[in-house]
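Ticket #4471: structure output looks truncated?

Reporter: J.K.
Steps to reproduce: submitted the chain below (168 residues) through the standard prediction queue, then opened the result file.
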Amino acid sequence: MPSPFEEHFTTLFESEFPRLYRYLERLSGDPDLAADLAQESFVRLYRRGSMPDHPGSWLVTVAMNLFRNSRTMSARRGRLLTVARAEASLGDPPPLPDQPGSEEAQRVRLALEQLAHRDRELLLLRSEGYSYRELATALGLHEPSIGTLLLRAKRAFREAYENVSAAP
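Returned output as attached by the reporter:
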């Protein structure tokens, strides 16, 4: 018979994994990396053996740290390896512009990449339905400032998006 922790963990996994995965996929642009990071976040929670006060925020925080670590490691590999060796060892090259993919999605991704890291994280987490409290906890911000920060992030995104769409 499963323990109360295991029952809560299972329920949490079923409700939070899809949302965490979507956030990570939008943040990274890599579905495989997103799945790995979301799964590793839950593995770490399970190994912890007890639920934190705010499990959703805890999972996002762990996932963001894992994402940052993966980016740091990837950048380090890029510096250490020659271009040809890096391409061979790091996988497939990015898709060419004429390959299938939504032009709109590409414009959104380009606009998001122009934003400050915090703005990008705020918008992506909020788009997945995280509450102001969860955003504040996950990003280490004060909850009363979240509304203002989101408004600024939306304005910055709108401006970046218009610049991307206006570019040739």
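Triage note (M.O.): checked the attachment and the full token line is present. The two ends are 61 Å apart (CA to CA).
Status: closed, working as intended.
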